[in-house]
Amino acid sequence: MAEQEASGLQVLLRTLQSSSDRESILTILQLLGDLLSGGTDRRIRYMISKGGSEALLQTLVDTARTSSPDYDILLPLFRLLAKVGLRDKKFGQKALELEALDVTLILARKNLCHSQNLLHCLWALRVFAASVTTAAMLGINGAMELLFKVITPYMQKRTRIIRAATEVLAALLKSKSNSRRAVNRGYVVGLLRLHQDWHSHDTANTYVLIRRGLLLCLKHVAALRSGREAFLAAQGMETLFSTTQNCLDDKSLEPVISIVLQILRQCYPKSPLPLVTASSAYAFPVPGSVTSDPPCVLTEEDFEDDGDEEADKDSDSEDVKEEDDDLETDVNKLTSKPGPDRPEEELRQYEAMCLELSCSFEDLESKPGDDLSFEETQYANHHHIPTAASLKRHCLSKDQLSWGQEREDTGRTSLLSTVKMGRSSVHLASGKAPGMNPYQNAQSNGLGIDSSGSEIPDIQAFLNEDAWDIDAMSCPRMSASFSNSTRPRDATEVINKLLQTHPQHIPFHDPCLYMAKARRTRSVADFKMMAFPDLWGHRPPPSAQPMLERKCGIQRIKIFEDIRRLLQPSDIINKVVFSLDEPWPLQDTASDCLRFFSKFESGNLRKAIQVREFEYDLLVNADVNNTQHQQWFYFRVSGMKAAVPYRFNVINCEKPNSQFNYGMQPTLYSVKEALLGRPTWIRMGHEICYYKNHYRQSAAVTGGASGKCYYTLTFAVTFPHDEDVCYLAYHYPYTYSALMTHLDILEKSVNPKQVYFRQEVLCQTLGGNSCPLVTITAMPESKSADHVEQFRQRPYQVITARVHPGESNASWVMKGTLEFLVSSDPVARLLRENFIFKIIPMLNPDGVINGNHRCSLRGEDLNRQWLSPRAHLQPTIYHAKGLLYYLSSIGRSPVVFCDFHGHSQKKNVFLYGCSIKETLWQAESTVGTSTLIEDISYRTLPKILDKLAPAFTMSSCSFLVEKSRASTARVVVWREMGVSRSYTMESSYCGCNQGPYQGLQFGTSELEEMGAMFCLGLLILELKSVSCSHHLLTRAATLLNAEEEALDHYLQRCSSSSSSITSELDDEPACLEEIDYSTDSSSDQEGSFSELDRLIQECAFNKEEGDEEEEGPGQGRKASP
Ligand SMILES: [Zn+2]
């Protein structure tokens, strides 16, 4: 702004304040009006900075206090005040100090019958009330009574005034003291009656904004407990519910319905979960004190409604800029390397886990590389590479080829060639409607002939036959302890017969071996059953599944259904049909309801309640020895009708948001489909949403803190068959027994003359299970000293996974890694010849087995125990860390350490790493980072993976060191072992929003492919490093020729894009529908500045028009005659 203009403005303002001359005041007001109406917000703010607000307020007070106030001055003045006041955060305070509140209220009272004057006063009051403190003061001075008088009783006259008055009232009621006053004066009843009157008379929806204003008043009152009580006592739930039911689809009523929904959710009486105790249904005696709260019985008396917002404070909240104070800014902590957490001599025990360093290979034949002498085993020399691309071939050939041919076919696909195809060759079923049953997409000829061409017996008869009652069977785990004599046949026999009649081949799976492994798996609840999918195996579906498109308004429909339960309880069945807490069997098989079961490995379902004929509330179990972490579920359901949508509501979820709101579906496995030749977990479910519900944890459980909230995951499933046995899970299950089976098969699959594969026990878990440790490398070329030396000198790579049991995606990625590393793929060979892989595929077996989501049997998050693990409390972490310490102590720290995880809030796959500089920079730390020397090599691997792996994205990677993560594997291995490339790899539970998999949910093949690509990334990382041996480069070059410069291509791409594009991908944008209604996120829209601006402008131009002008349809325009 020009200097002259600036000084001119100051002169105007000064003159306005000091002048008592009517004409000059009017001229100045006219000038200011012109100046501001033509200018931008910036000009108004400038005027505020020059004392504009004060000058206008002072003029108002001076003019209003004369014996007969001059409205020719007051009206333009009010318009200016409203305009300026909207943009001046301290306006209310200034008005209060200059005593402008009182004079405005007095003017309003005087003008109750003079619409134009009153309207101007209301605008001024509206901007005063934007400050809660001023609003409270206005309340004390009787503003609410005045406004209430203006808006009651209902009349369709002076609608402009009524609208302005409701808006001021709504603003006033944001003050708690005003709300309290409104409750005491019985305004809740009055407001509800007004709402009803307007609703029934305004059939053309002309006055939506008045109706919305009234509802906003109710909403603010309902923020108080006494307000909610008054609302409930006045039958508010019933009133709002019934007035909205027949107009839910009316778009013009959207502003009304959204507020109604907020009020109904706010006022829905809070109640405890329908559980006897918040702690897990499973308890396990563990050493040491358990960190979580003791079990506590929930009773109605214990339960406290939210008392959190009762503080009688009316202060304006300051805009506090959110700072990330979780970043570690202590340079000493970032740079110092702490000593070992245990005596050096303790490390010697890990020598035994590194036999590769001492083995002399005396019995190795001197003739190297004699592949042909190896007698082929079933899986020997396999080429199985789990990629989405190979899956495509696999499925295309499925009908025509026998399994042998197929394997040959996939055998020709090397990882490098899939890298070339990978990003552009995703097989996506075309024209598939979201929510459609993907089983129908599978190749089914409906003639009872399976894919192998052999006839299969009638499935129905099969399942009904007593001995084949899959529902009851699900494979008794131990016939010895299972004394029920109605199951005469041995499980093995049953399975064998099933396998005979339903031949199947699932790579790296063997039902009989699984059964043997499962018998040795020890669970807290001593599971007697095995889940059919784990036993029978899973084969990926023929095509990738797109994300589910969110149905518009689904959450609203669900919430109204929840409210209907409260208001019309007679329609509700409310029958407990399954519960871990009840010792007696709840399920009478004769009844029509679904049957549930979860007492099997990784199973998690605590209780099922039938709500309506085809609707069930489900509660999942807390982690063992804990009261929280409900998210993972895995259960069996049977007794269904086909083609009927069943609705499931998991009502005790804990996370505040979920990918279920952004296209993710749960997974389903049908036993009938499996027996028809499609043993496949698929994404299933429609009408999915995830939102905050009315259940609260009792304060007694949380130790006095106000009750924790719960969230509902709701989804509908249409089962593929009548009377099927199906399994539903949060994500593709992967049990501990599945891992143990897999490792045995992998071991048998390798040619021991080529592949050094050793499986051993890292330690025993608290639950008495073995935590496996796998070593993979290549056998030395010969037993010559040179070759054995080369063998021993290979650098280490350490990979771990599944410390969080609910993150089964991490296990599928690990499965891909393991299968690739032992494969005959040339890249895998090179990797084996150059590295020793130490892999702990499941850091938390007990958690996985017992269906936990997050913790160990002690109820602890094991990925927060790496700083000082104890051998008897966190054995797997203690020994994993011990092994890494040992490697470090002999100068053999791994090149890369990576811990595989699953991520519930983000899409894609990405890495978290550690960087001092990036952390300090991000925290805007004052510590000079210029003197700090940091090797930026931690960025290389994620950049490589970004180029190689379709699912991976650099843009979600982060290299910040947070205080809250100080005890995670990533940070501890980085700090204490000095491994600069120490990572967490996160895979979304959902899928990708970038790259070739954009819009697709992850299937197991995409996850497994990621595991293989990770390995390729390790090779390329080595090729790019300065220390890379000439020998390896030559070998890689040979491979490169053979693979049509694929590798070259990628190496070039990696190096050419060394300045990475790191446009931060945000986490999900705000959900279209409010998940958490208690956050007042919509309040900003209440006082629509531009709307008030427009009204003022309009009024200034039309001021000569008549007083009784009616407000036009919805928008405040003039009604057409
Ligand atoms: Zn995790």
- Please give the order of strands in the largest beta sheet: 12-13-15-14-16-18-17
Bound molecules: zinc ion
Task: Name the helicity range.
Answer: 25-40%
Radius of gyration: 35 Å
Low-confidence stretches: 292-313, 317-322, 368-384, 389-412, 423-437, 441-488, 1053-1067, 1078-1085, 1104-1121
SS class: alpha+beta
How many strands in all?
Answer: 18
Mean pLDDT: 81
Brief summary:
The protein has 1121 residues and is of the alpha+beta class. It contains 42 helices and 18 strands.
Verbal overview:
- It contains 42 helices and 18 strands.
- By secondary structure, the protein is an alpha+beta fold.
- The strands form three sheets. Strands 12-13-15-14-16-18-17 form a seven-stranded mixed beta sheet. The protein has a six-stranded mixed beta sheet with strand order 1-3-4-6-10-9, with helices on one face. A five-stranded antiparallel beta sheet has the order 2-5-11-7-8.
- α1 (3-18) runs parallel beside α4 (52-64), α13 packs antiparallel against α14 (208-221) and α13 (187-201) runs parallel beside α16 (236-245).
- The two termini are 45 Å apart.
- The structure holds zinc ion.
- Zinc ion (ZN) is lined by residues 804, 807, 901.
- Zinc ion is lined by residues 804, 807, 901.
What distinguishing features does this structure have?
single chain; 1121 residues; alpha+beta; seven-stranded mixed sheet; disordered C terminus; binds zinc ion
